[in-house]
Design goal:
By secondary structure, the protein is mainly alpha-helical. The relative contact order is 0.19.
Length: about 80
């Protein structure tokens, strides 16, 4: 999962700009001040990058990069098995 985490950190840093300090526990809304549409745009980029689909029920429980990395890792592992 470290590669997924690093990829997500990189993707999010490009999405929000370099001025914002990011870590795996950064909250998308309270930590970054992103609107829900911005979070959805970021998630769409993640889905495209990893060639996966994240259902909205699962996504509604994700607040941080660490949580998103866990979801992506689980989906990618399921796709590959």
């Amino acid at each position: 999962m470290p590669n997924i985490e690093n990829t997500l950190l990189y993707m999010l840093s490009k999405f929000v700009g370099r001025d914002i300090a990011l870590d795996l526990d950064t909250d998308f809304v309270s930590g970054l001040g992103l609107e829900s549409i911005q979070v959805m745009e970021f998630v769409m980029e993640v889905e495209e990058k990893f060639d996966i689909a994240i259902d909205l029920d699962t996504l509604s429980n994700v607040r941080s990069l660490r949580g998103l990395a866990a979801v992506v890792s689980k989906i990618v592992a399921g796709v590959r098995s």
